[in-house]
Amino acid sequence: MATAPIEPPQRLVSSLSGDPDGAVREWLAALPTLVQQRLDAWKLTLERVQAPGGRSSLLALVRQQDGTPAALKLTVPGRVSAHEAAALEAWDGWGAVRLLRSDDAGGALLLERLQGAVSLRALPEAKALLEAAGTVRRLWVPAKADHPFETLAGRTEEAAVALRTAGSLTRAAGPLVEQALELRRTLPAGSDEQFLLHGAFRQGKVLAGERAPWLAVGPSPVVGERAYDLAALVLDRFEDLMAGSGAAPAARRRVAKLADSLEVDRDRLRDWTLYRAVDTGVREVAAGARQRGELLLEFAAWL
């Protein structure tokens, strides 16, 4: 059991300290106690809290009672990741980190230990995209009729107001915002696919493991069509693509290559990528990351 005080990573503290939600701030203040309670309840020995860590969760490297290494994750309450445990149970280690135990009430997850410092971003771009495509394919399992997950229609509907509001801060992006909002309205109704998706898939969410070479972590699960998940992969490391010559045609080739390799419709992948690029781009601008946001909007315009 841990004897030294448990300190949340500074990145997590900085990310959540200004959150207007009182419950989030209360959770952050209580986090050292919550971690210790879970260590005691599950008879875990704390090795260290991983830093810099994430912006909405704490990850602690621990040992189970028999000495087996594991990772204890506590996530901010009320976030999209509320159904992370259910998604990991559905995948049962196939393409994703294995869930060992969960505490639904407290939002705690005990996960198999992966190599947190080694993600697909360590690989050359072409190899990373190949491995990422193989990993995300494993996660696309048909959703059960009584699944607990959010749907694409619901997730994008909730995002529409924020997109329109944030888009007003970038007048030049007006036509792109309107196009993205129209795509948001039509795309979810245009497909009958009902797959369980990772929801936040990118190369940095795929870590090296012992049981399998690469395993996905940190899902924000949602049910819908595969092109939505794949769109995030199209946008991954887009800055590297834009820095090269012939960036615009290279972006379109990436869409075509990924769509064909995973048997996803090219046009729908292009449309979901445009939507996600605009949605992310205007949010980045609104948050003060103007340069990155405007690059994303330029990427969207190429499509």
Automatic annotation (TrEMBL):
One Gene Ontology biological process: secondary metabolic process
InterPro entries to which the protein is assigned, alphabetical: Kinase-like_dom_sf, NH2Glyco/OHUrea_AB-resist_kin
Alphabetical UniProt keywords: Kinase, Transferase
Pfam families in the cross-refs: APH_6_hur
One annotated GO molecular function: kinase activity
The organism's place on the tree of life at top rank: Bacteria
Stated name of the protein: Kinase
Source species: Streptomyces auratus AGR0001
